[in-house]
Amino acid sequence: MEKHYHVKKNDLVMVTNGKDKGKTGKVLRIVQKKDRLIVEKINMIKKHVKPSQKAKGGIMERENPIHVSNVMIYCEKCSKPVRVGKKVLEDGKKVRYCKKCDEVIDK
Ligand SMILES: [Zn+2]
Question: Which residues surround ligand 1, an ion (CB under 5 A)?
Answer without folding.
Answer: 75, 77-78, 98, 100-101, 103
